[in-house]
Specification:
The structure is a single chain. Helix 1 packs parallel to helix 3, helix 3 packs across helix 4 and helix 8 crosses helix 9. The chain has a 9-stranded mixed sheet. The protein has one domain: TIM Barrel (Alpha-Beta Barrel), CATH 3.20.20.190. It is an alpha/beta fold. The chain is globular. It is built from 9 helices and 9 strands. The longest helix has 15 residues. Helix 4 links the parallel strand 4 and strand 5. The structure holds SN-glycerol-3-phosphate and magnesium ion. The site of magnesium ion has 3 residues, from strand 2.
């Protein structure tokens, strides 16, 4: 079975530093995280970068779509996936790589991401976990590089969760911890899948979820949640 760390820093340590930046990963490490989560999408010219939103507006103050912006025109501070991997190698951080494609680029984003992983992932780090809300991205990742473990991301319970996970060979489910029910949690564990939840920053909620059987808490505040579930 897929072994997940108990705690993963969401977008680095998003409670303390700008999300998905190199500074956020350094902050996560300083606060005790051994793994981080990040969001990978493609620039106009097909470079894998770290960005959650389709637009650069919220995090960078630039009113432009990532998919329409070439790498050379990105604002400073947006890391490429390769730059981030190099830093994780230095810091000893594992990573849950969320493939977050812009619409229509589901398979292409996955193929570029796994190509970068194949070329750049440091051998001394634990193998990365790929995840996505896009089944098509996970299927493309499976076809291109089946050796990288995959988790299906879901915002809430859906009837066909097990079929969808099986269809892409997922070893885990990552879901919204605020909507997880005890019966579904049991069913996921009985199916032999690893279970991660996002984004949980409340220590009491984290403890309750671990008590329910959740393997991994993805949190903006890794120091707080590490202390809570120790
Ligand atoms: O990968 C877990 C979580 O990051 C999924 O949601 O919107 O924060 O990328 P989001
Ligand atoms: Mg994410």
């Amino acid at each position: 079975m897929l072994q997940l760390p108990k705690v993963i820093g969401h977008r680095g340590a998003a409670a303390y530093a700008p999300e998905n930046t190199l500074e956020s990963f350094r902050e996560a490490r300083r606060r005790g995280a051994t793994w981080v989560e990040t969001d990978v999408k493609l620039t106009a010219d097909g470079v894998a970068i770290l960005m959650h939103d389709e637009s650069l507006k919220r995090t960078m103050g630039m009113d432009r779509l990532v998919a329409e912006t070439p790498r050379a025109e990105l604002p400073a501070g947006v890391p490429t996936f390769e730059e981030a991997i190099a830093l994780w190698g230095e810091l000893g951080l594992g990573c849950n790589v969320e493939i977050k494609p812009c619409p229509g680029r589901e398979a292409e984003t996955a193929r570029v991401a796994v190509d970068v992983l194949r070329r750049r992932w440091p051998v001394h780090l634990p193998p990365p976990l790929l995840s996505s809300f896009a089944d098509e991205s996970l299927a493309a990742a499976q076809a291109a590089a089946p050796q990288f473990a995959r988790a299906l991301l879901l915002d809430r319970f859906v009837k066909d969760w097990q079929q969808r996970a099986a269809a892409v060979g997922a070893a885990g489910i990552n879901t919204n911890g605020k909507r997880l029910t005890a019966p579904w949690c049991c069913a996921i564990k009985q199916a032999g899948l690893a279970l991660g939840v996002y984004t949980i920053d409340d220590p009491a909620v984290a403890r309750a979820l671990v008590g329910m059987g959740v393997d991994c808490i993805i949190t903006d505040a890794p120091d707080v949640i590490l202390a809570a579930v120790a």
